[in-house]
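tool_call: predict_structure(chain=1)
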Amino acid sequence: MMFEAAIFDWDGTLADTRRVVVASFQKALRDIQCEISGDFIEKRIGIGAAETFREILRRSNRPFDEALIRHLVAKKIQNEIDLSADVRLFDGALALLEQLRGRVKLGLASMNDREVIEHLLKTTNTQRFFDAVLTAADVARSKPDPEIFLKCASKLGVSAEKCVVFEDSIFGVKAAKAARMGCVAVTTGVYPREALEKEKPDLVVASLSESGKILSFIFQ
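tool_result:
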């Protein structure tokens, strides 16, 4: 069984965005005098900004409507773009994309917002690698629902079982499994190896620089 497409998550998988994402949410929430721990936000990276804000406001017993959620998401997007100079690709990310390009189709499937992803792909000069880029704007349901991965596969023109997903969150691994795709989990996000292994990904690596293991899994 050889894979024909590799689909990557962005935050915590290809790019070290944790501090920037947390700061962007907290700054948006300060506008409405709402405080939340960085840990609460970190554990929700990957489910999408709107859903994260809903969970935060419920947790804080704050009444809200969808207009407020849209306002907070817009603020968070702007904050994240303003802080984008602090975003770095993880060790091995660029080299792995180089090694895969031309051998399999490459997709990006992130529950972050399109404006943020497009801006970061430009600033990191990585847009050239991807044959399809899907963001929160393209789906109705966030991870762990497999919708974003299934749509990405269909955009790449590859059947689900011929796709391998790279993820750092338990939501992402769950979504990949639900899509019946191969899954490589990396421990560069907020989840430790044990938590990721519980979700039964096909391979767990400490970083994308473990390219020997990764490539032999993809081209086994």
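agent: The domain at 18-85 is CATH 1.10.150 (DNA polymerase; domain 1). Proceeding to next step.
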